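TL;DR need structure tokens for one chain.
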Amino acid sequence: MSDDINERLTRFLGSLKLQDIKPMSLHSDRLGDMPALNSEINLEWKQAFADGDPVAVSEETRAFRPRYEITVSFQSTPIFKQVSVFVVAFQLIDATAFDQLWADEEVRKVFTENQIQKTMWPFIRQLVHDGMSRLGINPLPLPWLL
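>> reply
TL;DR here they are.
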């Protein structure tokens, strides 16, 4: 990232504070069996946001509603799928700065694709681990996000 986007993102992050993370929907499906140890497993994951995000919950609160879809496959055959929807609420510290910087497409992209993603990844990792365990599949440790 350029120094310019870093400066804008820093100002944007200073305009809000993480308030709450609530799971709204959690769904796991066992679609097959895990292959033998040391087999190459494929992991696909998608993050999407609801139309209209962020939603103004109040004058000082904005909420994002990310949806995560994780699919674990072996040789293109799905073994496990986890779909989760959350509400991630932020308290606005400086609403004017938030609105001004949210209008910046590059700031929006970096915030949603990097910041929220990294904030949510520990929750996703745990849900996938728990979902696989509960469905009798040896859990697959998901990688760290850098």
